[in-house]
């Protein structure tokens, strides 16, 4: 008998119940008891949804973040929250977000740093360690949830914890010690935890060790040996869970560590599965992650069975089947969707539907395909319908992509030549000032957009109000004496959704939320088909904005790579192919803007870095098509048209050559918080084009002084010739208030003027 199990279930609730419960608690509108009751209700529902599984995850639920939960379990919260008033939960939220309910400003501590969970869009709270960090067990959360699961009727609960090596790998040293040195004293705490879980009746414990799909140095490989040889015990049995990629040169080690079972991601590593079956010692179980836990498409069950059956034959009783990773990364329930059309709906599976697929797979393996003939038939119909749909496949788009030649990515002249022509054309002063695109998204703007969406106001009314907002933004920028203006992006809800809504090949769900961090959820648009642009998307707004002023107006677009990386993307063709389709659509928009007299066009690639594969050895292949896609979108214009791009992060030391290859005339980046530190990279690498290192941190309510800004720019000028420098904020201003933005930009313009005087 093969068994079926799950690695983790989304915890936000089908209608984001957790978000609303968290936020009510933080605002002091509900008590801790109420929050905990809400959480329990969500867990109970989740367990019910997983009833038919042979092993059900427990401890995957979190009130904020599973890594922070693990830090609590290991007694590793930062010193700054020790000894503060309130409950354990108050401290938990202080680490998570800097404050808990009723904390006055003076009680704020600085929140733990947040960073991306591997290559997902989930963000965890980075555990902090120093040379003197010591760990101590607090198993309460897990023990209570085990108990709770039992009461809820879960007969085979499987606690889920982050394994010791991955936990340390995620930690950040707050001094110059090395976190690996802490392993030895971390392990006894894990041993004790495992013992307590076994005592509480857990037969299996899932140890998440996703770092096994990354490139590990010998030190880290050795850490795996040390850890698992120390933890080896008869009970509970350990399931070593790897996911998000292939094991490659960690494969033999992963197979041979002294644990009772191994989970592999066979969606991203299907070819590897057979190898693992060969390598895995005969007493171990193998959990095969066969259903995509990172995407929302229905699985092709027949195709999965075709490759899974031979492995099942070899493995017999030793086979478990599961989703590839925790279902945390997909929305909860397709049944919540009321507005999706039937075609598209029939192609999709959210977390609950994925578990149904798993059940069908398990039955087919155990009892033969005939036992689930009806389900397989229905699945095949859906898969075929998607494969053949004229809504997915647009021959004209495929042909357009096939016809892309090298010339598409090529500007007419090299940067130096273009810059000369642009200078003549644009008449900009030295240290030109500009902003990144958005101006404050006020309550009024949001209300107007909502009213339009609900058809409470007409399209004309909506357009008139948006134009008024644009005019307001333009007049303010003129008053400020900014050199290159923007229209302010009032009409955009979101930088990807706005474009997705206007492109063919996209649909939108109502409740397709995925946790990004804490109470923040995102609802990625669904890119299901060949991408085309039926009409211009931004030209009217930009043209209107340009008509209001003699100063150059910058056209604002989101780039193809960012649109791709922030969507749920079709899985029936390579991402690079889909990206090229997006690139062609954006290219048309760029050319339309140019034809409408817009001389400066910014193509944001905020998420370019996010798409980097987990293994550095695979970076270049990604960067090659990502950069090429950007170039296709940007480079169909004349030399006189100035192309800008923007990236809102500062770590690009390791990809700077690719950034340079994008060949944008101007790039604006985030730098102010790092005190221009990131510009160090330009000491070794001579960035060839113009650059605007941000001098105003838009994430903070604080406004820097003229001196601070001048100072930052002078630092920048040491690395990059002054004639190639721009002066701008770190990112868009949509989250700020006008009363903050005005003085900040006044200061910025003042700083630029001072710089011009030398
Ligand atoms: N143009 C966008 C804005 O200003 C860029 C946002 C971003 O980089 N995330 O809002
Ligand atoms: Zn940004």
Please describe what this structure looks like.
It contains 27 helices and 22 strands. It has about 750 residues and is an alpha/beta fold. Strands 1-12-11-10-9-8-6-2 form an eight-stranded parallel β-sheet. The protein has a five-stranded parallel β-sheet with strand order 17-19-20-21-22. Zinc ion binds next to loops.
The counted number of beta strands is 22
Looking at the structure, what is the overall shape?
globular
Quick check: average pLDDT? 95
Helix content: 40-55%
Number of helices: 27
Radius of gyration: 27 Å
Strand content: 5-15%
Helix vs. strand class: alpha/beta
Low confidence ranges: none
Largest sheet: 8 strands, parallel
Please give the order of strands in the largest beta sheet: 1-12-11-10-9-8-6-2
**Ligands in the structure?**
glutamine, zinc ion
Q: What is the terminal-to-terminal distance?
A: 78 Å
Summary of the model, kept short:
The protein has 758 residues and is α/β, with parallel strands linked by helices. It has 27 helices and 22 strands.
Set down the secondary structure blueprint.
Elements: E1 3-4, H1 17-26, H2 32-49, E2 56-58, H3 66-73, H4 88-97, E3 114-116, E4 123-125, E5 128-129, H5 140-151, E6 157-162, H6 164-170, E7 172-173, H7 183-199, E8 204-208, H8 218-231, E9 237-241, H9 251-256, E10 261-265, H10 270-279, E11 285-291, H11 301-315, E12 319-323, H12 342-347, H13 351-367, H14 373-388, H15 395-402, H16 415-426, H17 443-453, H18 459-480, H19 497-500, E13 504-507, E14 514-517, E15 520-522, E16 526-532, H20 539-547, E17 554-558, H21 560-565, E18 568-569, H22 575-595, E19 600-604, H23 619-634, E20 642-647, H24 656-661, E21 666-669, H25 681-684, E22 690-693, H26 706-719, H27 738-757
Parallel strand pairs: 1-12, 2-6, 5-7, 6-8, 8-9, 9-10, 10-11, 11-12, 16-18, 17-19, 19-20, 20-21, 21-22
Antiparallel strand pairs: 3-4, 13-16, 14-15
Helix pairs in contact: 1-2, 7-8, 11-13, 15-22, 17-18, 22-23, 26-27
The structure holds glutamine (GLN) and zinc ion.
